[in-house]
Structure formats: C-alpha cells, structure tokens
Amino acid sequence: MRQKPLKPIKTINLNLTKNKKRMRALLTSLILSATSLTVVAQSNIKEGNNSFALYTQTGDIKNLENARKFSDAAFKTRKDSSSVRNNVLRGLVYSSLAVVDSTRKQKYTIDPIDESLNTLKLIDKKKAYRNFPVEVDYIKQNLATALIYKSNVELKNNKFEEAYKGFLKVDSLGFKNADLKFNLATLAVSSKRYPDAIKYYKELIKQDSKKPQYYLELAAVYEKIGTKQDELNTLSAGRLEFPQNKDILFKLIDIYAKNESYDAILTIIDEAIKLEPENVELNYLAGYAYEDAKDIRNAKQYYNKVLRLDANNYPSNLALGLIYLKDFLKSKSDEDKQYAQSYLLKANEIKPYDVNALKALSTYYNAIEDYVQLDRVNILLNQLTVN
Fold it and tell me: Among 55, 179, 284, 358, which has the minimal tally of Cβ within 10 Å of its Cβ?
C-alpha cells in the first residue's frame, strides 16, 4: 500500500464541559479552603482561591491574574512549594493560563504547561489525588487542551518531533481518546518509531470505535519492517471486522499475488471483481489463479473477459495461446490449432521481441512443420538470447 503523506493531525475533542456540575462543588471548596494555615499563607491561599473561583464564575481574566499573583506569593519557600494545597491552587491557575494565554503574552519564569505538570507530580508523589479529584481532573483537562493546541501549531510548522512529544504528554495524562492515539501512531510512523506505532494502532483496534484505516495503516507498518505474517494477519483480522471494506480486500489480494498464494486469491477474487468488474488486472489475476488451480474453463472465461476489455492485453493473449497450444499438442484438432495460432500471433504482434511469445511460436511452428516460419522465429530467438 502506498503510504500517504503526513496530514495535519486530527482535531481532538476532550469534552471539557462534562465536569460542570462537579466544578460548582469545586468552587465552593475553593472558597472555604485554607482554614488551618499560618496567617500569611492563609491569606494568600484564601485570596487566590477566591479569585480563581470568581474567574470560573465570570470568565474575567483579571480574576485569573489576581489568582496568579496570590498563588505566586504563597509559593516562595521550599515548604510552600511542597504544600499540596499550594500546588493544587497553582495547578488550577497555571493550567488555566496555559489555555487562555495560549500565545504567551504574559511573562513566565516557567511555562504554564510545565508549572502545571510539576504540580501534578507533587500531588501524585504525595498520593493526594483522592483528596482533590475534581481539581486534578480540571488541571489535566486544561493541560490536555493546551498541549494539543501547542502540538497542532508545531505540526503546522513541520516540527513533528516536538508535536509527538506533546501528544505523548497528553497520553500520559490518562485520556482515552481515539484521535489522540491516531495522532501518536501517525507521528510515530513518520519518525520511524515503528514499535510505538504498532502499540498505538493495536490500542486503536481494541477500541469500540475502530476503523478500517487502523488495520490498513498497522499492516503498512508491518510491511515497512518486513514482518509479512503480521501484515497478513492484521489485514485478515480487518477483513473479518469490515468484510465490505474495499481497501482491505484489494490489499489482501495484492499480498496474495506477491506471495503467489493463488488458492487464497480464489476465495476472494470474485468479490473484488464485483466491485470493479472492468478492472483488467483483477480479471487477469482471476484467470491466472484459476489456471494455477487447473480450472481451465474458468481461466479461459476470465482471460477472454480481459480481451473484451482490452484486445491488446499481452498477458491474456499469451496465456490463451499457451492453453490452446498445449491442447493442440495433445489433440491435434484444427480448432485448438486455429486458436493457438491466433492468440500467439496477436501476442507476438503486441510485443514482437518478447522471448516467451517467440518460444511458444517456435513450438507451434515445429508442431505444424512450418519450417520456414520456424527458422525465422528461431533466428530472432537466438539473436535475443545471445545478447
């Protein structure tokens, strides 16, 4: 399968509105928090939480800026930076800034994305997630939105490595999103991280929203790394899942043809021809597969169909000529003789210097004892084979 060029990756929707009810509870908890801290820290955390609560209610960026000011003031010492409550507020504030200030118009010592990731690391280290589940989910969703925006910008600028790392960070946040996995798989292929690509495509195939594209692209990865059986197994599984998919069907036929698995071709070729009844290559392949299976009657039907579609098709003229030549050598019937001569001469007319047609004509002229034509053909054959 021809690998498609890398496209701008899919837009990912993480449904940030799903926690609205839980966020109302969060606002109340923010306003009522920080009741047992020291006086200075209590003031900064309380004011920061209140400002952030106002921001979530009004959407006014000034409230978010105030929340940042109080959060920074409460984050001065090592003790401050190790406080879970301080980190929760900081994560809420900076993850929000990572989204609303996507072009980074404000000045930051550390990028809001990295600030937010650092807060999650501390919360996780102290196993405090169970105490702040809504807040942590909110931080993660903001982070995912900011990272996706940043990665899409990097994709537009052809910075595929940076984009891949960004999507990896989104994946590490635990979101089960098919478009995200697809982006990671596609970018992994473009950077030749084939084991990673295989992992992500397999995850996609396990999801309920699986698509034929996932099977085709996973098979293409296996083709790149040369694991032919895995490629075949993937496409066979895809065909079981999507029996009406034309691309999977045609790719299977292509692989069977390359492997000369003509018995396997016969099980699916008729279905492919129904989809493209005037496809010359498919009809010829059907003829060849039936001939390989010694079903000469069906082989003739398909070869003749090819010639109805394209009278100057060399392989089918030669194939029919060889079939009738073989029959003539056994039967010596005038009908077989006539057909053998007609198809072989047509093949020779199409490709005058093709050795296969000339060898068949040599056999034919020898059988009918036409030594003038036999000498002519043999002289030409000798000239071609000596070179």
Answer: 179
Environment class of 320 (CB within 10 Å of its CB; exposed 0-12, middle 13-18, buried 19+): buried
Give the Cα separation of 355 and 351 in Å (integer).
9
**At a CB cut-off of 8 Å and minimum separation 6, what does 121 contact?**
none
| Strand, helix or coil for residue 341 | helix
Q: What dihedral do alpha carbons 22, 25, 69, 169 form, nearest 10°? A: -20
Cβ proximity of 93 and 72 under 8 Å: no
Residues 6+ apart with CB under 8 A from 228: 222, 255, 259
Q: What is the DSSP string of 39-105?
A: HHHHHHHHHHHHHHHHHHHH--HHHHHHHHHHHHHT--SHHHHT-HHHHHHHHHHHHHHHHHTTT--
